């Protein structure tokens, strides 16, 4: 007998160009202008771009140099993370008026499980509309939302009517919605995986659905099982109010490219200090250290080592980071270095039994 999908009411709220929108709100002179938070005309990386800048192809993680090239009139502003955290906290309090099941993904987005909510409202769509209105009225910013029966579909849906919009994918619409969706829009399918899927003749959810579990596992490893299930609307991950991080890291982009390993070691010591501070604040330790290196040609390289014991001390972190730095010859001058710690002592072993067959969908569910 086919197992029905677990019918939860999940909302994914995503703030619209959050950092840039906060800057435009606080400084009216920036409203309507192409804006980049972070980076500079010569160096650094864009953390966020206003919608006016996005029209010129400016995106987060783009170099400031390329952002300026694409949009000559762009305005760069320094990020103010304390201010973003302050605004994020206000938004979080609005969420908590509706449910305690709030899982923040970052400062600007979160999942809410409103299956049973504090307002006694049976419509997740109406709750999302009300939340977005309150954010606008009480905070002064716009947000978009996606509503469906699980986190995966809600996350995709929140992108549909951005900015300042929302989309509900009801249970009886899920299969058609996913079959018609381009695979590049599937949450968890990045650029590299998208190209691999294209090479295998997979362009839409429908194409993906035609592939067997064995085929997808052969070509995508463990992720193959994930793709096999989500295209059928199967995603059992619950909204976790106390979301446990998988890694903790710190990194620095330099004003001038570094070619001397002596200077790099000085920077690594500073990064290790910051990482230790973050670890102690969260009371976390880990076993796997990863050194991130971004070269002057923007090529990215990572080097990792897993220890037999948990560490959080900066001296041990730095010692391993140095070892990784000297592991092989650098390919070019370096513009960014980062250290992260994974395989944390907060991680819990979880084995979720996921049905690997097509499921029927219950239709009578008020969204």
From TrEMBL:
EC primary class: transferase
Residues noted as binding Mg(2+) in the record, renumbered to the chain: 14, 108
Single GO molecular function: DNA-directed DNA polymerase activity
Domain of life: Bacteria
InterPro entries found in the cross-reference section: DNA/RNA_pol_sf (IPR043502), DNA_pol_Y-fam_lit_finger_sf (IPR036775), DNA_pol_Y-fam_little_finger (IPR017961), DNA_polymerase-Y (IPR050116), DNApol_IV (IPR022880), PolY_HhH_motif (IPR024728), Rev_trsase/Diguanyl_cyclase (IPR043128), UmuC (IPR001126)
EC number: 2.7.7.7
Site positions (Substrate discrimination): 19
Subunit structure of this chain's protein: Monomer.
Protein name per its UniProtKB record: DNA polymerase IV
